[in-house]
Write a structure and sequence with these properties.
Length: 529
């Protein structure tokens, strides 16, 4: 390629001089030489472009082959520190490939799509620019902009929003109005205190109300109103002393962390790194990536219609038992009575009475005679709030907005429930009623060959994941769907060996079982592997 460029650099001035002097005519031979030299120049200038596309295609193929997406991590610290942080963080995300970047510009080598990259973590400890080259810095910011607007997640650390780093887009996206300056802590640990907004935020809910980090300094930042400050410096009424700030920006999510200062030396919070810092970083990555952080080190175990070994299915007794046994979530079924009450029942009838045609009072009396008390959705929401997550299956279409309104009224956070249904129309209408909610398409009630390739149906209804019957999970089914950014939930699995295999299968996000005790035992074994 270099010889082609030299050919152009030497030949063109020579030809131009001959034409101007009138000693050479523009014949076929000269035209052929120009075409060859010009072709060489085009190839030279497109070489890096082709290489870039080839690298991205190779990464995308590897991601599809393994079913594992990436978290990209860059910290302007020595490689030993970065490795220590990476090794601690990746334990929280066993089914994601955590890739350490040597420089921010390496994100240009990746296809910045959510199907490939779950989250980007950029931490500037010492006013380090994304690049000393202004053109490259603009390319990095433009790539991050497209990624975030497309629904990507970004975690930014400490000095990345300070004016001297010149990261204009990141400052705008984070919602920073003005960074007033910094306050040195003089080796005094920074006391983190959860704000009122933080107690309701998914990041805050995963962390204690108070903890300390050896951060070195506190940046004083003024934020836009739509930015939620999750933690602030304890004892400080000044809102600019926020330590963790989060924002939904267009379709993407962004978090800023005060931690990770580099004064005379790197702050201990990141240099060790401390358990509190890793927990904060992992909770932030989980939220921006919209990925479930498996705190247990394995996919979630769901109690099918409650803990049915301790009470009749879909009853408050079974739900109380599931909470007592510390299931990750409860799976249950929703139907609506003739007088508009939302009840939890799998079959369309209670005894001989059709639920959709019968008032609640009559159904309740019939259920009591069968010794299976009929539970209401509102009672379960009141019980579950802050204690356990929910998988709510819509058995029918037509009352999606009523369920959405009830979830909002009971202040059930979108991270605490999912909606599933076999009905595409129900999934689509619920997404329209509650855009932020996570919805899954249930499959397994049709012929095997129709359910084994559900991609068109998933996209048509706007589902975020697929909940598949166990018999479908074979022949690369999970790998194919996760490569298209559709996590897989599996129902209903009771065999210990099968549960054990699914819990170790990359891309499986949850397993629903009637045998909660067996599932939790296998989950513990998978965690320790």
């Amino acid at each position: 390629m270099t010889s082609a460029l030299l050919c152009v650099l030497i030949a063109v001035p020579h030809w131009l001089g001959e034409f101007l002097a009138g000693t050479r005519e523009l014949g076929p031979k000269v035209l052929a030489e120009i075409i060859v030299a010009g072709g060489g120049a085009v190839i030279f200038w497109t070489e890096e472009h082709i290489k870039s596309h080839w690298r991205k295609a190779r990464i995308r193929f590897k991601c599809w082959l393994s079913g594992r997406r990436h978290i990209l991590l860059w910290i302007d610290a020595d490689i030993a520190t970065v490795r220590r942080v990476a090794n601690r963080v990746k334990k929280n995300f066993p089914f994601v490939r955590l890739q350490v970047l040597n420089a921010p510009s390496e994100i240009l080598l990746y296809p910045m799509k959510r199907s490939v990259v779950e989250a980007v973590v950029f931490i500037s400890t010492d006013v380090t620019k994304l690049s000393s080259d202004d053109e490259v810095r603009e390319q990095i910011e433009e790539e991050l902009k497209r990624y975030v607007l497309d629904g990507g997640g970004l975690v930014a650390g400490h000095d990345l929003i300070y004016r001297r780093t010149r990261s204009k887009y990141l400052c705008k996206a984070l919602g920073e109005i003005r960074a007033h300056g910094w306050y040195s802590m003089d080796n005094t640990p920074v006391r983190y205190e959860k704000t009122a907004a933080g107690k309701l935020h998914p990041i805050g809910r995963r962390l204690p109300d108070n903890f300390s980090l050896d951060d070195g300094e506190v940046l004083s930042v003024e934020w836009l109103p739509e930015v939620e400050v999750i933690f602030q410096q304890a004892g400080e009424a000044n809102p600019v002393r926020g330590l963790v700030a989060a924002r939904q920006f267009e379709d993407g999510r962004i978090v800023w962390l005060n931690s990770c200062d580099h004064g005379v030396e790197l702050s201990p919070s990141i240099n060790l790194p401390s358990a509190e810092f890793i927990a904060l970083l992992a909770a932030s990555i989980e939220w921006v990536a919209r990925a479930k952080q498996f705190a247990t080190g394995a996919p979630l175990i769901g109690a099918h219609r409650g803990a049915t070994g301790f009470g009749p299915e879909n009853t408050m007794t079974a739900f109380h038992a599931a909470i007592a046994l510390k299931a990750d979530f409860i799976e249950t079924d929703i139907r609506r009575t003739a007088d508009g009450i939302l009840v939890l029942h799998h079959d369309p009838e209670v005894g001989s009475l059709k639920i959709c045609d019968t008032p609640f009072a009559a159904l309740e009396a019939a259920a009591l005679t069968l010794k299976r008390p009929l539970a209401k959705l509102e009672d379960l929401l009141e019980l579950a709030r802050g204690k356990i997550n929910l998988d709510l299956e819509l058995k029918e279409a037509g009352y999606e907005s009523a369920i959405a309104d009830m979830l909002r009224a009971h202040q059930i956070d979108t991270e605490s429930f999912v909606i599933t249904s076999f009905l595409e129309s129900a999934v689509q209408r619920f997404k329209e009623s509650y855009r932020e909610a996570r919805c899954g398409l249930l499959i397994g009630d049709r012929s095997w060959w129709k359910d084994f390739f559900p991609e068109i149906r998933i996209r048509r209804c706007g589902a975020d994941f697929v909940a598949a019957k166990d018999s479908l999970v074979k022949l690369g089914f999970v790998r194919r769907l996760t490569a298209q950014k559709f996590p897989v939930w599996v129902w209903t699995v009771n065999d210990p060996f099968r549960i054990a295999k699914l819990l170790r299968m990359p891309g499986v996000e949850a397993v629903i079982t009637d045998s909660l005790y067996i599932g939790q035992n296998e989950q513990a074994r998978a965690r320790n592997d």
